Amino acid sequence: HEAETHRTDLMTITRYVLNEQSRHPESRGDFTILLSHIVLGCKFVCSAVSKAGLAKLIGLAGETNVQGEEQKKLDVLSNEVFVKALISSGRTCILVSEEDEEATFVDPSLRGKYCVVFDPLDGSSNIDCGVSIGTIFGVYMVKDKDNVTLDEVLQPGKNMLAAGYCMYGSSCTLVLSTGSGVNGFTLDPSLGEFILTHPDIKIPKKGKIYSVNEGNAKNWDGPTTKYVEKCKYPKDGASPKSLRYIGSMVADVHRTLLYGGIFLYPADKKSPNGKLRVLYEVFPMSFLMEQAGGQAFTGKQRALDLVPTKIHQRSPIFLGSYDEVEEIKGLYAAEE
Ligand code: AHM
Ligand code: MG
């Protein structure tokens, strides 16, 4: 009666995190409370995204975000919901959002020990056509919450306590790591709960898929060009790899995590630092990849070792199956 057990004994995300916490007797439930506020934000955005086509929520808000890109109404809304949910949790002290130029320092009366870096709605070019988009987040802990500076969030990704993303796709999936593996939860809309559906995700060691915006190929550097050439024309008698590119980092990374392969947003002549942002795109996804047994590399170093100096800094990124990233690392090493 295995199937019946699964239907009646539901491992919700809250139950899962509480279980994890019971292994740390010193913990007082603060992370569970923080996570429940992140989950609330994800549920809200999920509901707003699924209604977007109907409710005419989409369309230009007439504002430009810090990177000079057009902001959509749904981005603005998602950001507001996350900022308010995180502040009201009483467990945060600094927030860094892709949508806000400056970091938000939480009022001392509501301050807690966590810093949250996030992209409330990533993949903006896919909003209007209903293709998968997502939220990405990472969590740091401050040393002293009465004395916080921006340095608390300018830390290497390896210091993150937790990272995750929520994908608003054919279903709503939240993938989370608190530093001991990666687990995936799917929103059951009738319950309003995220249920553990993908326990202990491990990325395949090798992959048959590469994921990159090949429209930028003419401006790539040598190693990236060589790697992609080899994906298409392998010299060792292997089959060529398949190309999949959605243009939503969350969706492209989610597929890479489950099926294996590599996702790359390399540097190019026009964008020497690539496109993706270190704190709330590169770090959380690199954290999840490593926790799932894969790797993440910037073209120079292990991505999680990078020390950011600005909150909206960008970096090239190569992440995915262990062997694929190993190959990229070899090509960069050969360049030197
Ligand atoms: P955004 O923050 O404006 O949505 O940009 C980030 C997105 C990522 O989700 C995705 O990996 C990348 O941009 C795609 O960029 P490009 O269109 O240059 O291929
Ligand atoms: Mg983004």
From TrEMBL:
Reactions it catalyzes: beta-D-fructose 1,6-bisphosphate + H2O = beta-D-fructose 6-phosphate + phosphate
A GO molecular function held by the record: fructose 1,6-bisphosphate 1-phosphatase activity
Residue ranges occupied by any Fructose-1-6-bisphosphatase class I N-terminal domain in the UniProt entry: 11-199
EC number: 3.1.3.11
Subcellular location per the Swiss-Prot or TrEMBL entry: Cytoplasm
GO BP annotations, alphabetical order: fructose 1,6-bisphosphate metabolic process; fructose 6-phosphate metabolic process; fructose metabolic process; gluconeogenesis; sucrose biosynthetic process
Pfam families the UniProt entry points to: FBPase, FBPase_C
SUPFAM superfamilies: Carbohydrate phosphatase
Presence of the UniProt keyword Metal-binding in the record: yes
PROSITE patterns in alphabetical order: FBPASE
Region forming the signal peptide: none
Transmembrane helix among keywords: no
Designated name of the protein: Fructose-1,6-bisphosphatase, cytosolic
Species this protein is from: Musa troglodytarum (fe'i banana)
